[in-house]
Amino acid sequence: MGIFSLVTGRPGPSGYGSASTAEQVTEGIDASNLTVIITGGAAGIGLETARVLAIRKAHVIIAARNMEAANRAKNTILDEYEAANVDVLQLDLSSIKSIRVFVDNFKALNLPLNILINNAGIMFCPYQLSLDGIEMQFATNHIGHFLLTDLLIDKMKETARATGIEGRIVNVSSVAHLLAYEGGILFDKINDRKGYSDKRAYGQSKLANILHASELSRRLKVEGVNITGNSVHPGFIMTNLMKYSAVSMKIMKMFSFFLWKDVAQGAATTCYVALHPSLKGVSGKYFEDCNEMKPSAYATDPLLAKNLWDFSRKLINSASKA
Ligand SMILES: NC(=O)c1ccc[n+]([C@@H]2O[C@H](COP(=O)([O-])OP(=O)(O)OC[C@H]3O[C@@H](n4cnc5c(N)ncnc54)[C@H](OP(=O)(O)O)[C@@H]3O)[C@@H](O)[C@H]2O)c1
């Protein structure tokens, strides 16, 4: 796979490529025995992912901070597929309290959990701190998903044990992980305002998504748990994600239109990694255009992944006490 395949859509070893859509990569898959949580499932790539998983008959829980948008998303899916099994639950990933409430509410439903798709994200926002006092892109894109996964993992283990069905966790990262700060993750300066770069902070948070999936996968393998953890880059898709950089992105797209995908193609890699039977047992990997790819050197550094894990736990503990 490379730039030629990206532009032409030529399929890679998986049989799919940049032109494949989420519907195409899940064709013929029956997900009626699966329950899925997708964060940010009310808009953009997340909504298309939720729609396609729902038409494959999965029970889809859209986790969204904006309940109006979430209900609109649910109705859009139901309008197309009346039998869809879709629920909505409120979740603000930039708030530790909201994540804990979401998990309590989900557990109260007494549902199994087979698949967790950590999809929600923000990009290139000006410097700001979350309610818990953590730099906003790191808080939303990484810390929120780290805590959410941690609080749901027992439910996923229980489900995998009881059903014998492999659980899957998919972190929606980005090729922008290559933009991370020198050193990868600024452990000592995570909230540093002076050195803040909106691009590099986004890159750092997306690098964290990959490191989180790989360390999670390592731990699950050691425990012998039937759950995989992988990360994906969906491609370049014009969505509301670009709201902090709309003008520059539109200009960039004019010159690089051949590199961009539509939303149906943008949701393909996530759906492929979440559902495709050919990925049974595949864990700790990074995918682009529905094919395994090698991410940056930082993203494949096991020590950085372990340090990020420990750092994230400590950060959540101290923020929870404050
Ligand atoms: N689009 C691309 O070109 C591209 C490229 C590489 C990677 N990605 C990744 O793909 C994922 C989806 O992006 P997208 O393009 O679909 O963007 P999008 O259309 O902006 O969707 C992002 C979703 O995340 C939600 N979200 C943001 N902050 C949240 C929070 N604090 N709590 C809960 N939900 C929150 C948004 O909800 P609101 O509507 O309430 O804000 C929205 O539903 C992101 O992780 C992004 O980094 C996208």
From TrEMBL:
Top-level lineage group: Eukaryota
InterPro entries noted in UniProt: NAD(P)-bd_dom_sf (IPR036291), SDR_fam (IPR002347), TIC32 (IPR055280)
UniProt cross-references to SUPFAM superfamilies, sorted A to Z: NAD(P)-binding Rossmann-fold domains
Region (Disordered) residue spans: 1-20
Coiled-coil parts of chain: none
Annotated family: Belongs to the short-chain dehydrogenases/reductases (SDR) family.
Name the record gives this protein: Adh_short domain-containing protein
Source organism per UniProt: Cephalotus follicularis (Albany pitcher plant)
